[in-house]
Design a protein that fits this description.
Order of helices and strands: EHEHH
Number of helices: 3
Helix content: 25-40%
Largest sheet: 2 strands, parallel
Strand content: 5-15%
Distance between the termini: 53 Å
Length: 109
């Protein structure tokens, strides 16, 4: 039984090395006394955010193969994540708040 509580929100995950997630997984399983190998992140809900089309992990003095191998998608944990995608551009919806934000963005450039 796990006595750990709370949720974890981790942003900008595509640029993190997969070993970061694997280390946090093992650590939380140890801290929360996870029963077996089917428990992930100590049974703590975790939300990972980021755009996988933007930036990959940076591996100094190495090639594309090493970069791909370092990504979260190459981790053995990847199949256990539920992937959700955003389908609506919330900034493009009609409304006064969005219009004010769009005007503010236009002034920035």
């Amino acid at each position: 039984m796990c006595f750990c509580s709370g949720d974890i929100i981790w942003d900008e995950v595509p640029m993190q090395h997969r070993y970061c997630f694997e280390a946090v997984n093992r650590t939380l399983n140890d801290i929360c006394d996870a029963a077996d190998d089917t428990d992930y992140f100590g049974n703590i809900p975790i939300i990972l955010g980021g755009d996988f089309a933007q930036i990959a992990p940076v591996i100094r003095h190495d090639n594309r193969v090493a970069t791909v191998h370092a990504s979260l998608q190459s981790s053995p944990l990847w199949p256990y994540f539920q992937q959700l995608t955003l389908t609506d551009n919330m900034q493009a919806l009609p409304g006064t708040n969005n219009q004010v934000f769009a005007t503010w963005l236009a002034q920035m450039s």
